[in-house]
Amino acid sequence: MLWFATHAARGKGTARIVQVSERDVLARVAAGDDVLDERAARRTLPIADQTQGAAAAADGFLWLTQSDGTFGRLQKVDAETGMVMASFAMPVGIEDLEFAPDGRLWTVSEAGSQRWSAWRTFYPLVFSIDPGALR
Question: pLDDT per residue over 5-30, tens digit each?
Answer without folding.
Answer: 777 788 777 788 888 887 877 787 78
